[in-house]
Amino acid sequence: MIRLITGSLLAVAILGGAANAKAQNVISIKECKLKALEHNQAVKAKRAAYNSSEAEVKLTKSAMLPTVDFDATYLYQNDPMQMHIPGFELPTTSGEASGVYSPESTTNLQYHNTYNANVGFSLPLYLGGKLSETRKIAEHANAIAQSDLALSQTDVLLNVEQQYWTLVSLIEAEKVNQSSIQFLADVVTDMQNRFEAGVVTKNEVLKAKVELNNAKLNEITITNNIQLAKMAMNQSIGAPIDEPLNPADTTVEVAWDFDYFDFQEGQLEKRQEISILSRQQAIAQSEKTIVQSDYLPQVASFANYFYQNPDHLAQKEGEFSWTAGVSVTIPVFHWGERKQKKTISEMAIESAAYNLDQTREMLTLEVHQSIFRVKESITKLDFTEDALEQANENLTLENNRLKEEIATTTDLLNAQMQWQRAQADYISAKANVKICEALYLKAIGELNP
What we know:
By secondary structure, this protein is of the alpha+beta class. The protein is built from eight helices and ten strands. Helix 4 (about 130-195) runs antiparallel to helix 5 (about 200-235) and helix 4 (about 130-195) runs antiparallel to helix 8 (about 410-445).
């Protein structure tokens, strides 16, 4: 008795744990999106590039600040050179002997220890606006990196939308197929009973069995597709490939409003491609300003405070000193270099403007195409609903007629096949609406986690 109770409690615990584990694996589409964004390697690479561009902005800002450098050298000479000057009689202006002698002496040309230390200070005063334009370029590059990151995230979100609703539609299709299997199994049983009663032929029984086998074979295909879809979703969200996964949605639910899917002015401004090309055009303009600044006066200030041994006259050890100054560079003549560089920069600005205009046109076309697709998918869904209603009615009618023996098994099986096909079209149409809606949101720049 104790063993029986223990075994029962253990079974309850195992079943409860399995139920909890299953509940823990239920995941919503929002959770899938967030996990996919966190896991995706391409998004991580774009995020690293964005962080790098932020560092570049800080670097360009520091270039406008004064810089301080320190350098020091030390030299030890084992056998320093010396110059010996012999004594001599000093001459006079008349060339006669003066009787005054200069004693011999020795002068150090090198010392055992030679060293110096220098602290330098420099500050650019005027570079023709080059530093400010360089900072603007870095800021534009940072914004481009941010937009590039957002584009990568949008691609991930769209992929998750497609994977998720495909998986849900497969699960819903599996339920429909299971209903078909149950229905056909009942038909086979009914036909078998009728055959044994001598009402129908063996052929009618075999027809029903063939359709039942086809439904079972379709069940295997759907089950495999579901497993593959779950594996693909696990890969996208960074989970183990074979980890159990259950979407929070078990059926595809759609709600739409035709007026919502429309083109409006300003929608394109939310697209990251427009932001990127606009920034590239601004970068080209800044590069033109930098080209012009190269031919303007360049003014910089500097100062140095240093200590050296020996002193600058090589007469004593140790000397502190300092220098300060301002440097000015003025370009004078460069054989037309300025004109050619200006032409190159202007063509870059013009090219960027053309690319922006072309992209606006292509994105406008993309938005309209997405609107047409989503409205077409909604219309198709309406048609599949009508077809499904008719298939339901037809299946019920043929089933009743067969019971009244005024219809054949073939009529019932054809009605069942029509019903299953209508169910599959209806489920596919619902998933297509969801995916087309996601494509529309991507086209107008509003596809978010």
